[in-house]
Amino acid sequence: MFVEFISYIISCISALLAVAFFTLLERKGLSYFQLRKGPNKVGLMGSPQPLADAIKLFSKEYIKPIMINFLPFLICPLLSLFFALFLWLLYSSYFVVALGGMSMMLFLCLSSIGVYSVMGAGWFSNSKYALLGAVRAVAQSISYEVSMSLILMSCLLVVGSINLMNLLKYQYMCWIFFINFFMFLMWVVSSIAETHRAPFDFAEGESELVSGFNVEYGSVGFALLFMAEYGNILFMSFLSSSLFLGGGVIIMTFGFSMSLMVSFMAVLFIWVRASYPRYRYDLLMYLIWKSYLPCVLMILVFMAFFCKIMCYFS
């Protein structure tokens, strides 16, 4: 038990370090997409820039707006980061093996509960901009969780298990990406919408909402929300590579190949942000309820029928 706890702590520290340098990768990537240099003043090619930003944010004075509900206002960023780090229990290290047979159930539960921290951050700020951003974020998250859950169920139907390790073992010979290609495309779009990233960053639309649900947060509170958002991006990259790309287990050893797959999916988030302008909010809702949901349901029924036939003949 102690070894598993230490392993989980190491996973959390590694995730936080990955978040720090993923922000550097994003800033560098966006800068080269836009034909500029990005961070290059601090240290060698700007590599210590995330550490300098962290020191700046955590050492700034914490300003408390007058109208906030103080205690819940402070707790919401902590809860947001806690849920983001708790998801990394699903990462299969040498000592923690994806929580046995209930790993995907844990993901569905935590992804649903995480909406409350975003809603609370906007509600307890007592600011109209923050509340509007929180309402947008909650509606967007709840809508796309439906499609994500159904797509996840289609992958689990193919494998016949809700265990993440069984999902990886099933893909030793053939990735689910080749079986469920259209589901993969819809999963990527749903993941981007679920993490409130561009072109679906309506909760933080600077041109309309200043900064969305985190507009009243500064210094430590803003840093915690920021780390939670980027931690969720990296976890969704890990989960996407595990669900559809086999975690890279065909290519080489698990650890290095998994890192390559997660890096590829994380860079895809940056690439999409650099390539597409912000979508319209009503079109985003129509996309899930009028396009994705009927398509996912039809494919899910077909997959269930196909798996039933295969079980019957086997």
Automatic annotation (TrEMBL):
It catalyses: a ubiquinone + NADH + 5 H(+)(in) = a ubiquinol + NAD(+) + 4 H(+)(out). Coiled coil: none annotated. One of its GO terms (cellular component) is mitochondrial inner membrane. It is found in: Membrane; Mitochondrion inner membrane. Its EC number is 7.1.1.2. It is a multi-pass membrane protein. Keywords: Membrane, Mitochondrion, NAD, Transmembrane, Transmembrane helix, Ubiquinone. It comes from the Eukaryota. It is an enzyme of class 7 (translocase). GO terms for biological process: aerobic respiration. Its main location: membrane. PROSITE patterns: COMPLEX1_ND1_1, COMPLEX1_ND1_2. GO terms for molecular function: NADH dehydrogenase (ubiquinone) activity; NADH dehydrogenase activity. Belongs to the complex I subunit 1 family. This is NADH-ubiquinone oxidoreductase chain 1. It comes from Octopus conispadiceus. The gene is ND1.
